[in-house]
Design goal:
188 residues; six-stranded antiparallel β-sheet; single chain; 0% helix; SH3 type barrels; OB fold (Dihydrolipoamide Acetyltransferase, E2P); 16 strands; mainly beta
Amino acid sequence: MATTADFKNGLCFEMNGDLFSIINFQHVKPGKGPAFVRTKLRNLTNGKVIENTFNSGVKINLITVERRPHQFLYTDETGYHFMHNETFEQISIDKELINAPEFLKEGQYVEIVVHADNETPLSCELPSFVELEVTYTEPGMKGDTASSNSLKAAAMETGATVMVPLFINTGERIKVDTRDGSYSERVR
C-alpha cells in the first residue's frame, strides 16, 4: 500500500479493478479546504488517458511491473510480434498497447512493460525519437529554407504521414518524435 505522497511519474497501481500508470501529477493545497492531488493517468489495459483527483493521503494498491527490452519482428492479423533481446522468447501484442504503432519498423528496439505477477504485457513504449526515411513528399522549391514556417506532408517508410519543412525531399532520413508524431530534425 502507498499513499498520494508516494506518487511519481510512471508509478503503476490498481484502481476500480483496472491498472493505471501516472503520466503526471500535481499536489494542490488550496487556501480553503483539504489538499488534493490532480493526476493524469493512462489505463494500462486499453491505453486511454483520463484525469483523476485524489484526496491527500488516500491509499492505493501498487503493482509490480518490469520493463523488458524487445525487438519488433513483424505484424500480422494476430497482432504485433516482438522478441526478447536476451531470452529470444517471442510474444504477440495488440495494437492498442503500443504508444505509436505507426512509427514501428522491423528490427526496432522497444521496451515492453510487463505485469510481474502474471506476466501480462501492459504496454509497449517506443524510444522518444526514431529515424525514418521519407518515401514520398512533394519536391522542394528553390528558396525553401529552414527559416520558413511552412510545412508539407511526407510519407514515411512505415506508412505514417508526418508534417515536415519544405526543404525535406524524398529519400532523406529524418528524426520523428514518437510522443506527438512531429518532425524533429534531418539526419545527416
